[in-house]
Amino acid sequence: MARPSKAFRWPRALAEALLLAPALLAGPVHAADASASAAGAVLGAAEPSLAGGKGQDVYLDVTLNGAARGLVHFGDRAGQLWASAASLRALGFVLPAGGADPVALHDLAGLQQQYERALQRVTLTAPLTLLKLPETTLTVPGIEAQPVSAAPGLLLNYDLYGTRSTGAGGAGALNAFTELRAFGRWGVVSSTQLARSNHGGVDTQQQPRTVRLDTGWSQSWPDRLLTVRVGDTLTQALPWTRATRIGGIQIGSNFALQPYLSTTPVPSLLGSATLPSQLDLYVNGMRQYNGQVPAGPFQLNTLPSISGAGNAQVVLTDAFGRSTTLNFSLYGTQQLLKPGLTSWSVELGRVRQNYGLVSNDYGHDPMLSGSWRRGWSDTLTVAAHAEATRGLANVGAGAAGLLGNAGVLNGALAASSGTDRHGTQLNLGYNWNNERFNVGLTGTRTQGQYRDVAALSGALLARASGSATVGYNAGEVGSFSLSYLYQNYPGQAASRYVSAGWFKSLGRQATLSLTANRDLTDRKLYSVFLNLSWALDARTSASTGLQRDNAGTQLTASASRSTPSDGGWGWNTQLRQGGGQHGAQGEVNYQGPYGRYAAGANVVNGASTVYGDANGALVFMGGHLFAARQIYDAFALVSTDGVPGVPVRLENRPIGSTDASGHLLVTPLNAYQNNKLGINPMDLPADLRIDRVDAIATPPDRAGALVEFGITPVRAALVTLVDAAGQPLPLGSRVTVNGQAGNAVVGFDGETYLDTLDEHNQLTVQTPAGRCGAPLDYRKDTGGAIPRIGPLRCTPETRP
């Protein structure tokens, strides 16, 4: 290739000199080093000349599809740019092997170029078919849970319910449900029991009795998604299996320990941007994500926020305001696990029998059960289950598959064997839904003498069962539903039921519904129910209904006012007439900070019953006893170091103030989630030192966390210091209180803020002229404000 003429060699020399200037300033540079330095700074700098016969070599600042790519060596031939194939490939261009080298940019089909010779730069815009750019992966940021914290304590939940029938032969009953729970870093121990006491009535010999329900210990490890339970528990069930109540041990995964973890497949939305663009993701019309993408292909991994079939739109807006919309079809379902995620559980124990009737009735033979699920791919989740006891072994496998946007198909096959009894069970199901339609089909059939462990305890297993549900939302016309249920148990006639319904909103405050049911086995049994309800305000509602069945026609009317979640009164009433029943019911209830209380009466055909209910909780934690509403989830104890009357907020909502001991029990909270607690320092006196005003409480399940805000009362004052002549001490002079080092300095007008004072103090001040001292007797402002003391004369220290 011809070298450039002498007239055009100076631009290249000047560019090389500018590029090598930093290295030359640093010291001597060898030729090899200079060549390497230039080659590293300019793409193609070490290549032969590209000027051709009458052109010149130029070094241009390149912008490719909106991204700055630095300096690149080109040849300028009569205003047309040429570049080496190696340089173009390094920029990301896809060139055929064995093609011309160098390459004229105007020969690249679809490439747009804006060459600004005076500014020594070129802007290139190439179709993505010419480029091979790296793919950008975008992930919607998730929420990171804070470390779980638990403090030791005791809790007693109670629910007392009593009834009394009036009239001759009236009977009364008192029931008490209690749960005693101990918790700490070592886990949770819980025991529930039910006590009953009946008197009067036909059975006057019945004695009070207490039945233990469940007792157990559990411990969880959120980082491993693992929970261990020892005591009374339920085995894990899959769609085609039944849970069994046992006394023993259970070890298994628990996704509730990481509530921010996505367990279902995450859809990947693929696209490409010609220029750097702003990306907006819309799912069913609602924006879910906003971000930036460079030029080139991209992949957006987003959390599914829909159930069933839906549509996603990715809108790309480039720097020139031009928008491009990409449409995707999605299907979200909780039946699938994302690829590689496994759920499992293993149980060993004895079957619990006569639950709720007998405290300690367990089967003689131990049983072993195990369940396993794994996300095989984005569209397939496989599962297996096995259980065994003396004389019985049961094993099965199943899968759930996503059929694109056509729904989810699932199925399982299980077999049992033991004591000359063998059988199989087949389960199939299908469901699909979108914004308007929903379809659900499921069916199970057994062959031979199929059994599971629960069947050995007397829980009948249906020979065949099935259900079908179809729903349609017709918009302004309303919503329609149709369902069918079939069940066939051993020794019983098959049962078949069909029901249809219609529901419509009448404006924003009223609804109208119609439901019809029929027994297809005994066609004499049917019911039709028409109901109209309307909301009078945010808490008050009323309804009226007409029911027609084989027993006659019945009219109902009711009105209610819900109890406020933050406490207050509520009530409900109901009237019934017809169908062989004539009566009324009324109740008034109150929810306070320490529990919920209700009283009511029910009259049916002249017989009346009055009842009352009281439930709440007692918590012993942090050395103090607290009364609260029933606590079934997590909670927190807020401590302000003994400072009473501190207003506390939960998620920026006022929830109460600390008591005389500086504590407030906050309930309920969400277990293993970030619950934001805070205090407003503007509501507190000025003479308090506050370590923090916001805190995140992340308690474990059924336990409490201790949240300390670190509020310390201090003796604080704004003190004015003057010298012997009555002039303010110099700005910046350092003040020491009672010989203790601190950071207090004198400000303007000789004022300094001190918050480590005792009742009697000695101040020492280091001024530019030397040290001086002043005594200070603290006096508290009766209005709660920080007192202003002074001016105090600071006497210079005498030198020995």
Q: Count every beta strand, where a strand is a DSSP E run of 2 or more residues.
A: 55
User: Main sheet?
Assistant: 24 strands, antiparallel, barrel
Radius of gyration: 39 Å
Binned strand content: over 45%
Distance between the termini: 94 Å
Q: So what's the overall shape?
A: extended
Structural class: mainly beta
Describe the protein's topology:
Blueprint: H1 9-26, H2 31-41, E1 42-43, E2 56-64, E3 67-77, E4 80-83, H3 85-91, E5 103-104, E6 112-116, E7 121-125, E8 136-139, E9 153-165, E10 171-184, E11 187-200, E12 209-221, E13 226-234, E14 245-253, E15 268-273, E16 277-283, E17 286-293, E18 296-301, E19 308-318, E20 323-332, E21 342-352, E22 362-377, E23 380-389, E24 392-402, E25 408-418, E26 421-433, E27 437-448, H4 453-456, E28 464-473, E29 479-488, E30 495-506, E31 510-519, E32 526-535, E33 540-549, E34 552-561, E35 568-578, E36 581-592, E37 595-604, E38 607-621, E39 624-628, E40 634-639, E41 647-650, E42 653-657, E43 663-669, E44 675-679, E45 688-690, E46 694-697, E47 704-708, E48 711-713, E49 717-722, E50 734-737, E51 751-754, E52 760-767, E53 770-777, E54 788-793, E55 795-796
Parallel strand pairs: 1-3, 2-7, 8-18, 40-47, 49-54
Antiparallel strand pairs: 2-3, 3-4, 4-5, 6-7, 9-10, 9-38, 10-11, 11-12, 12-13, 13-14, 14-21, 15-18, 16-17, 16-19, 19-20, 21-22, 22-23, 23-24, 24-25, 25-26, 26-27, 27-28, 28-29, 29-30, 30-31, 31-32, 32-33, 33-34, 34-35, 35-36, 36-37, 37-38, 38-39, 40-43, 41-42, 41-44, 44-46, 45-48, 49-51, 50-52, ...
